[in-house]
Design goal:
It holds the Pfam family Redoxin. This is Peroxiredoxin. GO terms for molecular function: oxidoreductase activity. Residues 27-167 form the Thioredoxin domain. The chain is of the alpha/beta class and 170 residues long. The chain has a single domain (30-165), classed as 3-Layer(aba) Sandwich (Glutaredoxin). The protein has five helices and eight strands; from the N terminus they run αββββαβαβαββα. A six-stranded mixed sheet has the order 1-8-7-4-5-6. It has a two-stranded antiparallel sheet with strand order 2-3. The chain is elongated and about 80 Å long. The chain starts with a helix and ends in a 5-residue tail after the last helix.
Length: 170
Amino acid sequence: MTHLLKKNLLSLILLVLLATALWLVLRPTAVAAPASAFLLLDGSVRHTHDFQGKVTLVNFWATSCTSCVAEMPALAATHEKFKSRGYDTVAVAMSYDRPEYVQHFAQSRQLPFDVAFDRDGSIARDWADVRATPTSFLLDPEGRIVRRYVGPPDMARLHASIEKLLPSPD
């Protein structure tokens, strides 16, 4: 090899090593989900720590949000598809929604997952100050946020992410 070729090859190797080191340091890491108490429509309360051991989608939505209403059948189907493998969904209605609208929506659509109402907006504030709906957070079994979706998620990608986090089917 010529001297110039050796020098270029060495430079390339060093550049790849540096890029790898930077990626390891700067890569996004999962952060713990905020500690929250979710007041469900039936009056019971679920806490963030209740999600431990399950892959969970926390979805912020509103009955006045057309995208939210449109994505609900897909979220319900996703819940049904994966629930037997340790997947859960909690839909959190925004504080500006009317409780009776949320109750009617959940009952009339027979949503198969828990629906909570964020009465004072504190849950949305705790979860990265959610203002746009729909916004969803995918949690791993350790209760860490691994994905955030602003707007309706691409369902194929969501399913792929869920599959990676769940144990293999028997």
